Amino acid sequence: MAVEEQIAMAEAFAENQLWDTDKSQPSTYRVGEAAYSLASTLKLTLQEATFSRRGTLVVSAAIERLLNALGAEGPLQRPERRRPER
């Protein structure tokens, strides 16, 4: 989505959160190659849009959106397991 939409999504996310006032530590996480290609330019893109140092809000809002979409689809179904035929 466009950076303006990402910023709006992040700001809406931030408005609905209860924040811990204690000093937090930087977050680190591992992502797959496809996710990395999407997120690798996020810092620069947000700096250019004068929304720097708030990339965590964008990522958090996107994850929340994904989880809500998955939740709307209903419970996850356990895949059927079969032993490979020999």
Description:
- The relative contact order is 0.17.
- The radius of gyration is 17 Å and the shape is elongated.
- With 86 residues, the chain is mainly α.
- The chain contains four helices and no strands.
Task: Give the helices and strands, then pairings.
Blueprint: H1 3-15, H2 33-39, H3 42-48, H4 55-72
- Overall shape: it is elongated
Could you estimate the helical fraction of the residues in percent?
40-55%
**Low-pLDDT runs:** none
Structural class: mainly alpha
Q: What's the short version?
A:
This protein has 86 residues and is mostly helical. The protein has helices spanning 3-15, 33-39, 42-48, 55-72.
List descriptors.
52% helix, 86 residues, mainly alpha, single chain, 0% strand, elongated
